[in-house]
Amino acid sequence: MSLQTLPKTDPTKILRYRDGIYAVDMLTAAIVEFDFFTRLAEQPGSFEEVRDMMGWAPRPADVLITLCKANGFIAEGLEGTLQVTGMAREHLVSDSPWSLAGYYGSLKDRPVVKDFVRVLTTGKPAQWSGHENAEEDWHGAMHDENFAVAFTAAMDCRGLFLGKALADHLAEDLADRKRVLDVGGGSGVYACALIANHPHLTAAVMEQAPVDALAREKVAERGLADRVEVVTGDMFSGKWPKDADTHLFSNVMHDWDTPEIATLLGHSAAALPSGGLIIIHETFLNAEKTGPLPVAEYSCILVHSTQGRCYGSGEMIALLEAAGFGDARYFDTAGDRGAVVARKL
To answer: Distance (Å, rounded) from C-alpha 276 to C-alpha 342?
Structure first.
C-alpha cells in the first residue's frame, strides 16, 4: 500500500513551485502599487505603525512583512522597529540608482497582483484561481460539488507523501492511543496514513458535504473502510464525536484566522478526554517568523484565497495553551511541513 512507503526521491522542490506561486504577485503589489519600501525607508516603525501608514489589514500585512523578513528585505530593530535592509534600500527604494521597481512594474497588470491590492487593503480573500464564480473565495467555492471534488483530489495526491512522513514521526506519540478524529480531513488521506502505519488505531474523518462522500469513496478504495469511519458534520458546530483520544488537524488551521482557530481548539478541548492528544500538521513558520522562505511564500496563496495564513510554531503553541492544552512541542516532518503536538490538561 502506497500509504506505507515513501518515494525514493524527495518531491519538496516540486511542491515549492506550486506552494510559492503567488509570492511574486504579493511582492509586486507592495513594490508597484504601494511603493512600500520607499515609504518604509522614510518612516520605519512598529508593525502596527507600518500597517497604519500603508492602510493595510492586519492579516495580509503580517504575511507580506513575514515574506520580506524571510527574503532579507526588512529587518526588525530595537523595540520591534521594522526597517529596510541595505539590499532593499539599494534595489527596492524608488529613488535609488539601482532600483528595480521599474522591472517589477511590467507585472502590475497581472490579475493576482490586482487581487493583492484589494486583499491588503480590505483583509478579505479573493476568488480561488480559475473558479467560475468571481464572487466566491475558496471557502465559498468548496460548497460547489465539482470544485470541491477537484480540489479535494488535488490535496489527496500530496497526502500520500506527507501523510506517511507524519505517521512515521508520530510513532511514539501514538503508541498508547486508540482512536483518531481527523477534523476537516478532506479525502481522509492523513487518517488513512496513520491507520495504515499504526495497526492498533481506528479513526473517523469529520467532513461536511459534498467532501464527505469523496472521503468515503477514497477510504473504501484504500481498503480501510473497516477501520476508518466518515462522519458528516461541520467542524465549527461543536457537535463532535467524543470517542476519540486523539484529534488530528492536517492542513486545516492555515485556512482560518485566529478567532476561528481558537473556536476549533475550544471544541477539541471539550471533546477530548483529559490527557487527550492533539496534532496540528501544517506548514509552520519558525517561532521568530523570519522563515523558512518557502513557508513565507506559501502563506501568500493562503492569504489570497482563504481566511488564513501560515502561522509561527510559537503562535500555534500559544493558541493551544490558551485553549487548555500543555506539553506542546514542534517538529519538522517533510515537504516543508511540520507538526505541533500537545495534550489536554
So the answer is: 8
Q: Does residue 105 sit in the same domain as residue 150?
A: no
Does 277 reside within a domain? yes
User: What are the tens digits of pLDDT across the range 159-213?
Assistant: 999 999 999 999 999 999 999 999 999 999 999 999 999 999 999 999 998 899 9
pLDDT at 255 over 70: yes
Q: Cell digits for 306?
A: 482563504
Q: Give the mean pLDDT of the chain.
A: 94
Whether 120 and 149 share a structural domain: no
Q: What type of residue is 316?
A: M
Residue 223 — very low, low, confident or very high, per pLDDT cuts 50/70/90?
A: very high
Distances (CA, A) of 145 to 127, 141, 161, 209, 305: 16, 9, 26, 8, 18
Shared-domain flag, residues 189 and 53? no
Residues 221 and 263 in one domain: yes
The band of 137, judged by pLDDT with boundaries at 50, 70 and 90, is low
Query: Which of 90, 124, 158 corresponds to the end of one domain?
Result: 124
Which range marks the domain in which residue 110 is found?
Answer: 12-124
Q: Are the C-beta atoms of 343 and 325 separated by less than 8 Å?
A: yes
Other C-beta atoms closer than 10 Å to the C-beta of 7 total 10
In angstroms, the CA 284 to CA 174 distance is 22
Helix (H) or strand (E) holding 41: helix 36-42
Q: Please report which confidence band the pLDDT of residue 131 belongs to, taking 50, 70 and 90 as the band edges.
A: very low
Q: Which amino acid is at 127?
A: Q
CA-to-CA distance for 310 and 298, rounded, in angstroms? Answer: 8
> Is 266 among the domain residues?
yes
Of the candidates 292, 289, 315, the one whose C-alpha atom is nearest the C-alpha of residue 61 is 289
Is the peptide bond preceding residue 210 cis, with omega within 30 degrees of 0? yes
Q: Is the dihedral of CA 126, 189, 321, 260 positive or negative?
A: positive
Whole-prediction pTM = 0.94
Report the half-sphere exposure of 292 (CA within 13 A, side-chain side).
Answer: 13
